[in-house]
Design a protein that fits this description.
Elements lengths: L9 E4 L5 H12 L3 E6 L10 E5 L5 H15 L2 E6 L14 H19 L3 H7 L2 E6 L2 H5 L5 H21 L4 E8 L12 H9 L9 H12 L11 E4 L6
Parallel strand pairs: 1-2, 1-4, 2-3, 4-5, 5-6, 6-7
Helix pairs in contact: 1-8, 3-6
The structure holds NADPH dihydro-nicotinamide-adenine-dinucleotide phosphate.
NADPH dihydro-nicotinamide-adenine-dinucleotide phosphate binds next to helix 1, strand 2 and helix 3.
InterPro entries: NAD(P)-bd_dom_sf, Sc_DH/Rdtase_CS, SDR_fam
Family: Belongs to the short-chain dehydrogenases/reductases (SDR) family.
Pfam families: adh_short_C2
Length: 241
């Protein structure tokens, strides 16, 4: 048996075409899982052996169809990783209602849309592991991110509550809270601000998408984390929360 017991398990990752999601997809493939992933705009990953599905997490019907397509083609879904997310940063007085709605719809309602169609199936099968990607911003707040931090704090509340409900069905739910990870999401941050953030991180570097992927694999694993549910695993180089 492979150490993490994820081989041949069907796992869906939202936003798996780039960034953290792509690193999760790549690692799960290495671990022998059957991986499906969604993307919104374009697919840069195109990995052999994966099922890539265009689907916007804000579209409830599309997310229902994803679950049906994956189960038809690959079999019962064991793991789901709610990873897709966006930022639309601005200081609160300048934040538009559109910015607020877009971030909440994608990062929080999107998690709901992702989990809603698959959770009853997991309950029926008495098997499943859910991992939601939250953020250091959702734990401690961050300048210019009232919308984003609210969506990510909401995701923690959703995950912890779901864990309480799901336990009796043998289904686990956990969150991973990355600090600052080198992906496209960091690109809009000015260099000066990046230097300041870096000086606050005891491990003296930004995280890599792979750092997050390993935490996700641990939480998905029926072997490594069978007694872990309702938790938030921080992957942030001891950046204070
Ligand atoms: P990227 O910007 O690199 O990638 C975002 C991913 O989300 C893309 O795959 C994108 O798809 C997908 N996505 C965005 N909106 C939607 C949507 N409406 N429907 C479907 N897919 C969508 O970000 P990261 O990889 O850095 O972020 C991944 C997750 O990690 C996010 O939830 C983010 O909030 C979180 N996170 C990131 C941190 C960081 O420092 N990078 C820190 C803490 C948390 P497409 O390419 O098609 O647009």
């Amino acid at each position: 048996m492979a150490p993490l017991g994820l081989e041949d398990q069907v796992i869906v990752v939202t936003g798996g075409n780039r960034g953290i999601g792509a690193a999760i997809v790549n690692l799960l493939l290495e671990l022998g899982s059957k991986v499906a992933y969604t993307y919104r705009s374009h697919d840069e990953n195109s990995l052999m052996g994966t099922m890539a599905i265009p689907a916007d997490v804000t579209d409830e019907t599309a997310m229902q169809a994803v679950v049906e397509q994956v189960e038809d083609k690959l079999g019962p879904i064991y793991g789901i990783v709610a990873n897709a997310g966006i930022t639309k940063d601005n200081f609160f007085p300048k934040l538009t209602t559109a910015n607020w709605d877009e971030v909440i719809d994608t990062n929080l309602k999107g998690v709901y849309n992702t989990l809603k169609p698959v959770i009853p199936r997991m309950y029926e099968r008495r098997s499943g592991s859910v991992v939601c990607i939250t953020s250091i911003s959702g734990e401690r707040g961050n300048l210019g991110q009232t919308n984003y931090a609210a969506s990510k704090a909401g995701t923690i509340g959703l995950t912890k509550s779901l864990a309480l409900e799901a336990a009796r069905y043998g289904v686990r739910a956990n969150a991973v809270s990355p600090g600052f990870i080198e992906t496209d999401m960091l690109k809009p941050i000015p260099d000066k601000v990046k230097q300041r953030i870096l000086s606050e991180i005891p491990l003296s570097r930004f995280g890599k998408p792979e750092d997050v992927a390993w935490a996700v694999a641990f939480l998905l694993s029926p072997v490594a984390s069978s007694y872990v549910t309702g938790t938030v695993v921080r992957v942030n180089g001891a950046h204070h929360t």
